[in-house]
Amino acid sequence: MTPAAPVRARDWVAGARPRTLGAGIAPVVVGTAVGAAGHDVLVGRAALALVVAVAIQVGANYANDYSDGVRGTDADRVGPRRLTASGAVSPAAVRRAAAIAFAVAAVAGLVLSLLVDPWLLLVGVAALGAAVLYTGGPKPYGYLGLGELMVLVFFGFVATAGSAYVQQGALTAGAWWASATCGLLAAAVLAVNNVRDRVGDAAAGKRTLAVRLGDRPARLLCVALVAAAFASVVALGTIHAGALLGLAALPVAVPPARAILGGRTGPALIPALVGLVRLELVVAALVAIGILAW
Description:
Shape: globular
Helix content: over 70%
Oligomer: single chain
Number of helices: 13
Order of helices and strands: HHHHHHHHHHHHH
């Protein structure tokens, strides 16, 4: 568990899991569009919200790397290597990286709350706590099968509705449907990740939802989450007609859905995971453009 070679910048970049960061960017894009509908976009507030969302996700990724590494959960993983478990970086260094990312999120969140509403500090504290406790603490909820639910809450409702709120200081029905869209797609990303790691997680005692449900039901859940996300786009379209442009992303959903339902396992599921992150970004961009341009 000690570094075998000098730490390289690309090790840290890989540890931040950049291919998954779309799940943090998308809710800010959609939430900003919904909150600014009929008004000018408050770019500074949107930028701060983006810093908060991405920094929390990067911090969560490092914290997950650290916690799973020291618990031994990542000792026999089938996905990309992890910094702690592989010995590329010391556990203490990974823990510091998580703390730095969380500190960046806290500072940006503090500035945003002072600009908008002090109660947002409580939301930020809850989001940071959820990021740490996913695989950290005495009873990590990621080991109890609650990961997808918490992703729906924080990468969906908190991040999206929060981004909408900071624009004009109000929440609308559209903000909640937009939150469902982003949250369901983010939950689908985690669900596929857990399908990929199901066998290793089961052996390590990590009772994710995929472990609890079994292989086939977990795969069906992944696709159902994506379908529900598109249904929420339709619901959002009843409030902001331009949001229906998001349905143009349906073809982007086909390749990952085929891979998931086709029974791919292990590293062969990574393209499906990346494809779902891409799908969320495309849906977010199209929905935002439709709302702001309509």
